[in-house]
Amino acid sequence: MTKQVASILGVPFSTRGFRESVDYMVERIEGGKQTHVVTANPEIVMLAREHRGFRAIVEQAYVVPDGIGIVYAAKWTNQPIYERVTGVELLEALMAEADRRRWSVYLLGAHPEVISLAAQKLAERYPSARVVGYRDGYFRQDEEEQIVQDIAEKKPHLLFVALGAPRQEEWMVKYRDQLNASLMMGVGGSFDVISGKVKRAPAIWQKLHLEWFYRLASQPSRWKRQLAIPRFVLTVLREKWSGRS
What Pfam families does this protein map onto (predicted)? Predict the structure, then answer.
């Protein structure tokens, strides 16, 4: 039987494929179990490697391989991760389940215009899913208690948080026991894509595993963040050659 966890530079990834991951999450929600999902790409792995507090958060979460770099790293180190589980596609798949099961959904983060548009589009696309609330990510610290209380009162099956990593993961863990959310997941820039403000790479770029390059070409300001990719590759290969990975 394939093991359920593979370690990439110390980060414990689920080895389930996309559909199997969705089914597993649905099973946990229906069973009343709380789940914190982290969609981890090379940038997240390097953050976890360099910051002990963030690594502790990731180690307690259900981590999926969001990024072809993770799949390649697994291949290089002979670990059973064969399929990407991207954040925006996982969000859409969980929304489809929410539509089917009439689950409640809460959206938090992003720019005010973006979150409003994303909420509207998701409500139109999944009419039986109940979008019970949304809030942009431009809030002050003294407003957090009110936001947490609002989410707690709504008791969402799905809580999607777009505050950027590592802030979104730290925020969810900080308030996890108060939020009353069945599944909470950091979704980074997914609301920008869903709202239509940012275009996802065309299918051919995705198929060629060059989505990261498309994002860099269309948003050159991302170049500093993208430096995590070559650092990640070099670190994986160095550990492989030294026999530690």
Answer: Glyco_tran_WecG
Cβ-defined contacts of 15-22 (< 8 Å, 24+): 15/79, 15/80, 15/81, 16/64, 16/85, 17/82, 17/83, 17/85, 18/83, 18/84, 18/85, 18/89, 18/90, 18/93, 21/64, 21/85, 21/90, 22/90, 22/93, 22/94, 22/97
pLDDT tens figures, 179-222: 999 999 999 999 999 999 876 666 665 565 556 555 555 655 55
Handedness of CA 177, 178, 183, 186 (dihedral sign): negative
Please enumerate in sequence order all residues whose Cβ is within 8 A of that of 210, keeping only pairs 6 or more positions apart, or say none: 201
Burial level of 119, CB count in 10 A (0-12/13-18/19+)? buried
Structure tokens at 141: 């610290």
- C-alpha to C-alpha distance for 35 and 184, rounded to whole angstroms: 6
Predicted structure pTM score: 0.88
